[in-house]
Write a structure and sequence with these properties.
The protein is α/β, with parallel strands linked by helices and about 200 residues long. The chain is built from six helices and ten strands. The longest helix has 16 residues, at about 140-155. The structure holds pyroglutamic acid.
Length: about 200
């Protein structure tokens, strides 16, 4: 049995609920497809998030890594194609904001996801769940996490599937949000991530 490190994030900014937290708590310890899942909840904190997931790479020694994050306003499940070496934008949960700051000083400009993102999109759409590849993970904590993991794996010469998937808001979040955002049921979000894990070789 292979091991999957599955990460999600705590709530952040104006979003009091992060549906990825629920998904990770629900799937932690479960066996899906070829994988035993180790769930990890990440803080939204430039200073500690990367170290936390890199620590987990060392302790869990996963055969694959899927990180999940909320992209409020998106209408589909969106596997990310690329992470870029840039942090720029809103405050994290510690009140720190960055501008034009590299994730890794002197690091590569970007890293492509090593997850089978096209297969994920095909599997989801065939099952009736809207999905599309996203060409930007932004410049906030999600991009930061995806970049950090791919940079670390690259440095270690570890060729395991790893990458990031953004999900839309849940109904619960939409109801608790001041913004008018598209939402999915928790069950559909969960089923989509299960389908993605089942599609992983
Ligand atoms: N989404 C944010 C950070 C945490 C999360 O769930 C992002 O897209 O960067």
């Amino acid at each position: 049995m292979k091991t999957l490190l599955l990460t999600g994030f705590e709530p952040f900014l104006e979003f009091p609920i992060n549906p990825t937290e629920k998904i990770v708590k629900e799937l932690d310890g479960k066996q899906i497809g070829q994988y035993q899942i180790t769930g990890l909840l990440l803080p939204v904190d430039y200073a500690t998030t990367s170290a936390k997931i890199i620590d987990a790479l060392q302790t869990v020694k996963p055969d694959a890594v899927i990180s999940l994050g909320l992209a409020a306003g998106r209408t589909a499940i969106t596997p990310e194609r690329i992470a870029i070496n840039c942090r720029d934008g809103a405050q994290d949960n510690k009140g720190n904001s960055l501008q034009d700051s590299p994730v890794v000083e002197g690091g590569a400009d970007g890293y492509f996801s090593t997850l089978p993102i096209r297969k994920f999109v095909n599997v989801l759409t065939e099952a009736g769940y809207p999905a599309q590849i996203s060409n930007t993970a932004g410049t906030y904590l999600c991009n930061n996490t995806m970049y950090s993991v791919l940079h670390e794996l690259n440095g270690l010469g570890l060729n395991i599937p790893a990458g990031f998937i953004h999900v839309p808001a849940s109904h619960e979040l939409a109801l608790n949000s001041k913004k008018n955002i598209a939402s999915w049921s928790d069950q559909d979000l969960l089923t989509s991530i299960v389908l993605i894990i089942e599609a992983l070789d």
